[in-house]
């Protein structure tokens, strides 16, 4: 009966103790702030009190929020000699759009028990202070950042939506003609947010060809009563096909900066975004976002048929046209350079030069085209064929003015020129047929005679029949090249063997390393550093013999060395000296009396004789 009572008491005590532990363990969830604006990150804390050995709790994804784990911190407290531990997991929550969001519930497992933390509510407000339920749609888009699509999460990258960072596309003209150029402006609006690694925006522009982006420009601009930092991208589009098109949306990728989680909780001062801190200081982490702009509908009109001149070749814009002639007084066959210059605003890529036809009056060559800024020039070469040419015909350039929707034509010329007959010496050669059988008499050609200077020195002379090959110095010179070849060949073979044969390389460097070690040992002996002397002697001898017999560092022992020396035919006296020197060096490391009373000079001399003997083997 007493045993049963004892068992029941133990069970009751264990149950009571477990109840106490259960009461001490606590799992809670909290937000750094409960009301924020889109784009203002906020920290979610999941804290477990009672132990720090808790696995990271899972957080279910929430549409409209970007949530990721950023770290954990542990804490230990002692109150009235009672110790308690806790761990806090931190998550960075980035709201992507306005709405009210419920995050959780959360679960943690400890000692076989499951603990539940109640869900938390995050209210994301726009600048007016109102909040709506999360979810995409036109109504939500109209209440949020202008020109930004509804947020969608794709992995770690999201279409960000908020009033602190957004993207807008602007096009001055939505109805234009084929070949007309229209500038597109894409503006990145930023308010108190740190951004980095900003890429150029990309967007769909079917039916249009695009030019290069000019260098982005930074400025400040007021939009809807608020001052923003602006990064402005500009690019020209040129329509090449009539029809209705949709331009955009433009998508821009960048990285948003957020302060790294600290070991202790913190609060944002007066609710201000943490991105107002200096983004170039340490303690920040980044995460990628995507911004999407608005779309713009465009209509491309065909060329008007009414009033279209024959000289129109597709130029659209507002242009001026000038013609310059290099010379107005030439001879037959002389080139005349006609420079035609078109300048103004419009698509110069579609501008072509007025045609100058080739006829009996002129030989015409292809023009040379140059383009700089808003100016395009054509240089064309004309060569008059006869002296009957009196003028260069008039040249006309036609274009469509998109501002008025009407064609305009600029005509230059005709240009009066004077062409004279070329002289006989400049006339081209003519082939004349000669009657057969007649002789052609040519005048006798007078050949000149060179002036030969008198030589004052005859120079070196050789006897008749002299051959260079019979010269002894020449023969000796021929032996130099084979000798140099042999030197380089054997040198190469030696270097190649050193690189590929490890044992041979160690054998060659053994004497040099031994001489260096002996000098170091003698210097230590002269200074009175006896312990250092014995250490240097031991290292020198072991390294020398290890290199000589190609032994690994761990295999250089007295027994192994003795065996190698016996195989190599070394004298017994040398083997005895090797064992004696190594024994003395080993004892000197542990017995100071040996190192102080030993004959150091004799040890050094014995080492030298060992090395000399092995070198002669």
Question: Would you tell me the structural class of the helices and strands?
Answer: alpha+beta
Principal-axis shape: flat
CATH class of the largest domain reads: Mainly Beta
Looking at how many chains there are and whether they match, the oligomeric state comes to single chain
The tally of structural domains comes to 4
Main sheet characteristics: 7 strands, mixed
Description:
With 617 residues, the chain is an alpha+beta fold. Strands 23, 25, 26, 27, 28, 30 and 31 form a seven-stranded mixed β-sheet that branches. Strands 12, 14, 16, 17 and 18 form a five-stranded antiparallel β-sheet that branches. Strands 1-3-5-4 form a four-stranded antiparallel β-sheet. The longest helix is centred in the C-terminal third of the chain and has 29 residues, at 472-500. The radius of gyration is 49 Å and the shape is flat. The model is unreliable at 13-23, 132-158, 261-281 and 431-438 (pLDDT under 50).
